[in-house]
Structures are given as C-alpha cells and as structure tokens.
Amino acid sequence: MTGTRLAELPGRPCPIAAAIEVVGERWALLIVRELHLGAKTFNEIVQGTGAPRDRVAARLKSLAEAGIVERVAYQSSPQRFEYHLTPSGQELAPILKALLKWGLKHVVQPDDPDRDAYRSAAVSKGSA
Fold first, then answer.
1. For the segment 66-118, what is each residue's pLDDT rounded down to a tens digit?
2. How would residue 63 be classed by pLDDT, with cut points 50, 70 and 90?
3. 4 domain residue, yes or no
4. Where in this chain does the record put each HTH hxlR-type domain (predicted)?
5. How many domains, the chain?
6. Which of 11, 25, 41, 45 is surrounded by the fewest CB atoms within 10 Å?
7. What is the C-alpha to C-alpha distance for residues 37 and 85, in angstroms, rounded to an integer?
8. What DSSP letter does each residue of 9-72 carry, written as one string?
C-alpha cells in the first residue's frame, strides 16, 4: 500500500482527507460493502452495487493498489479472479455499520417499506 503525505493534500491536511482520497471515490465503499457481505466475483460486485462495469473495474484496481482489496486468480482459461478484503479492508466494517445507522436515522424515509430489513442489520453485530 502506498501512503499519503498529509502535507500533499489540498486544504487542511488530516487523516480524514487522506482516507477519503482512497475510499471516497464513487462506488468504492459500496464495493467494500459487497465484499464484506460475501460477494467474491466481479459479476456479484456489479450486481450488488448496481455500478457500471467499467467503474467497478476502476475502483477494484484502485482499492487493490491501496491495499484494501486483493485479487486472487481462481481460473486460468479464461483468466478469472475473486476479490477479498485484506485486513485493512476488513477494518472498514465499523465505518460501514456507522454509515448504515446514520443513513437509517437521517436519510432513509421513515415510511420506506425496505427500512425494516436494514434496521435489524444495523443493530446486529458485525453487519453492514
């Protein structure tokens, strides 16, 4: 993983800004969410995120370069890969859970029919 020098960031140099440089790209945290929930293949990640295939490919590449995701070959002809969270990526789970709880409290409409499925996930241990 390549690190970031705080002084090289625009604005106020801080670790939050450095973290956002890595996981703040559109779709990045949703890819982490899908891997955390058990997705392994590119197609599973695309389906779970709803992101365009080219965006998923780009984000997987940047997440791998940042040491958050690892790519493991499982087939050679044609070449196919599985994706797994590294220990660094697994440490994002509490952030996903916090975003889930915050989203339920402040963003999702109270009468949303899908809300209850996520409310139970927000209180169960380790869910995101």
1. 999 999 999 999 999 999 999 999 999 999 999 999 999 999 998 998 888 88
2. very high
3. no
4. 14-111
5. 2
6. 11
7. 11
8. SSSS--HHHHHHHHH-STTHHHHHHHHHTT--BHHHHHHHH---HHHHHHHHHHHHHTTSEEEE
pLDDT at residue 126 greater than cutoff 50: no
6, part of any domain: no
Are both 65 and 99 inside the same structural domain? no
Quote the tokens at residue 60.
Answer: 């997987």
18 and 42, same domain (yes or no): yes
Domain boundaries, position 110: 92-128
CA distance 28 to 112: 25
Sort strands 69-76 and 79-85 into parallel, antiparallel or unpaired: antiparallel
Do 30 and 74 belong to one domain?
yes
Instruction: Specify the pLDDT at position 1.
Output: 56
What's the rounded Cα separation, in Å, for the pair 23 and 30? 10
